[in-house]
Amino acid sequence: MNYCSQCAAPLIRKIPDGDDRLRHVCTACRHVHYQNPRVVTGTLPVHGERVLLCKRAIAPRLGFWTLPAGFLENGESTDEGAVRETWEEALARVEINGLYTLFNLPQIAQVHLFFRARLLNLDFAAGVESSEVRLFSEAEIPWQQLAFPVVSSTLRHYFADRLQGSYPLRIEDLRWERDPTRQPTAAHEATAQSPKARSE
Ligand code: ZN
């Protein structure tokens, strides 16, 4: 961030009075541009014994399988965003069954949420960001071709919890070793590196 979105003057990094960390502050209008974590919201769509996955048609992790998820938009609740993303990526209509996994990704300043969801019909198809959408039984899950650790972890929890018939909220912090030669350019790219997960 180089220029003020309020008045277009250059920004500097400084600690504002009464604050304790560096912020982007406008040199002209003094506006403080706070940057805070972003929320990614998605679903774990289920039909009978099977779960729905989308094959990514876009980078990062093109060709890998994922749960439908994306950035929460202004004006949405987290479950509304999850339903919207499920429609956009899988053209699937779902009924939300409650929040299931929450991942803190402090290194990339994101929080990822997945809701358990019931597919309302089988009229799903690939949305623009997907090349294929299909249902998988537990035995069919392509564990080596999953796009992101948050997806693997949500599926692992789900198949274990399903044996018990209860689905408590699962909260994890995902961290990974920084590769100094590499600058993550996209949030999801960073999460694709091997994380060190801590289960709560
Ligand atoms: Zn300004």
Description:
By secondary structure, this protein is an alpha+beta fold. It is built from three helices and twelve strands, in the order βββββββαβββαβαβ. Strands 4, 5, 6, 7, 8, 9, 10, 11 and 12 form a nine-stranded mixed β-sheet that branches. A hairpin with a 2-residue loop joins strand 4 and strand 5. The longest helix has 16 residues. The radius of gyration is 19 Å and the shape is elongated. Zinc ion (ZN) binds next to loops.
Name its key features:
3 helices, Nucleoside Triphosphate Pyrophosphohydrolase, disordered C terminus, alpha+beta, Ubiquitin Ligase Nedd4, Chain: W, 200 residues, binds zinc ion
Number of extended strands: 12
- Our estimate of the beta-strand percent is 35-45%
The largest pleated sheet is described as: 9 strands, mixed
- Average pLDDT, to the nearest integer? 91
> How many whole angstroms does the radius of gyration measure?
19 Å
Helix content: 10-25%
What is the helix tally? Answer: 3
What is the name of the CATH architecture of the largest domain?
Alpha-Beta Complex
Q: Specify the structural class.
A: alpha+beta
Choose one word for the global shape: elongated
User: What is the H level of CATH, i.e. the homologous superfamily of the largest domain?
Assistant: Nucleoside Triphosphate Pyrophosphohydrolase
CATH class group of the largest domain: Alpha Beta
CATH topology of the largest domain: Nucleoside Triphosphate Pyrophosphohydrolase
